């Protein structure tokens, strides 16, 4: 057999070195990130168990004075916002910080996966976990007597707010994890979680704070998410533009900073 016939054979192996398409790399990395999230018991406690316990505990007791009206109707949107923050920000910042410390990100940095690809993959994995969170929290809230308003328009508006908030929190988490040491990230992420739980309108309205600080609180991503969800799902108001602007701004700024300053090691 001549060399020409071997080269032209349809079964001849013809290597084609090169990076896979970006969408395939992001999809593969997102699947791996999701498996890691679901196997981490501590993160599941933070992202799933704590929000459910807060919802049940504060709905069935009068420890907090949340004003007139149904307790669960007021609390459910705020707990949904807390769940998004705990997954997209707190859990992801801590997990990514220790991945960076143990050299996992350094190895990823040697692959064709870019910073943007890593951010996109981690965000997709977070969205998948949030879908499970939302299903569980809404199910518990409905069992407690939650009566959401807004109909289809309200549901679509809530979905938009959650997507924007996820992008904002995820990018801020990666910015923190990619610039601070793992121990500092652990402390800072938990501190932010506690502070925003108290200041972000999650379990009581920001109207209780002095009027001088309310504009600053309204500019927080957790406040924009909680107030936007509550205005539509609890009060039945028309979708507002301000929460969308606030969350979109945080998402854009966070993504730009994370892509610029994130370090693999």
TrEMBL record:
Pfam families in UniProt: ABC2_membrane
Cellular component GO terms, alphabetical: ATP-binding cassette (ABC) transporter complex
Subcellular location: Cell membrane; Membrane
Bilayer-crossing regions: 44-68, 74-98, 119-146, 152-175, 187-206, 240-262
Keyword annotations of the record: Antibiotic resistance, Cell membrane, Membrane, Transmembrane, Transmembrane helix, Transport
Main location: membrane
Annotated membrane topology: Multi-pass membrane protein
All copies of domain ABC transmembrane type-2, residue ranges: 42-265
One annotated GO molecular function: ABC-type transporter activity
Keyword Cell membrane among record annotations: yes
GO biological process terms on file: response to antibiotic
Domain of life: Bacteria
InterPro entries reported for this sequence: ABC2_TM, ABC2_TM_bact-type, ABC_2_transport, Nod_factor_ABC_transporter
Family statement: Belongs to the ABC-2 integral membrane protein family.
Name by which UniProt lists this protein: Transport permease protein
């Amino acid at each position: 057999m001549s060399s020409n016939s071997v080269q032209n054979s349809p079964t001849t192996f013809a290597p084609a070195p090169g990076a896979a398409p970006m969408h395939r790399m992001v999809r593969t990395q997102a699947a791996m990130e999701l498996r890691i999230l679901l196997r981490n018991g501590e993160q599941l406690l933070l992202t799933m168990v704590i929000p459910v316990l807060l919802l049940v505990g504060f709905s069935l007791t009068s420890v907090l004075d949340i004003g007139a009206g149904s307790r669960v109707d007021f609390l459910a949107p705020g707990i949904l916002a807390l769940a998004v923050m705990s997954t997209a920000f707190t859990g992801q910042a801590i997990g990514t910080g220790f991945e960076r410390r143990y050299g996992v990100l350094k190895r990823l940095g040697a692959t064709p996966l870019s910073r943007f690809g890593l951010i996109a993959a981690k965000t997709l994995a977070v969205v998948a976990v949030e879908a499970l969170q939302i299903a569980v929290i809404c199910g518990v809230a409905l069992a407690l007597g939650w009566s959401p308003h807004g109909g289809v328009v309200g549901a679509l508006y809530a979905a938009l707010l959650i997507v924007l908030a996820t992008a904002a929190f995820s990018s801020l988490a990666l910015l923190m994890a990619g610039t601070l040491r793992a121990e500092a990230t652990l402390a800072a992420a938990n501190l932010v979680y506690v502070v925003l739980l108290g200041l972000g309108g999650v379990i009581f309205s920001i109207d209780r704070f002095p009027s001088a600080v309310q504009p600053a609180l309204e500019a927080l991503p957790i406040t924009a998410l909680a107030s936007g969800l509550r205005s539509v799902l609890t009060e039945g108001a028309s979708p507002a533009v301000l929460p969308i602007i606030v969350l979109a701004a945080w998402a854009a700024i966070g993504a730009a900073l994370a892509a610029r300053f994130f370090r693999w090691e």
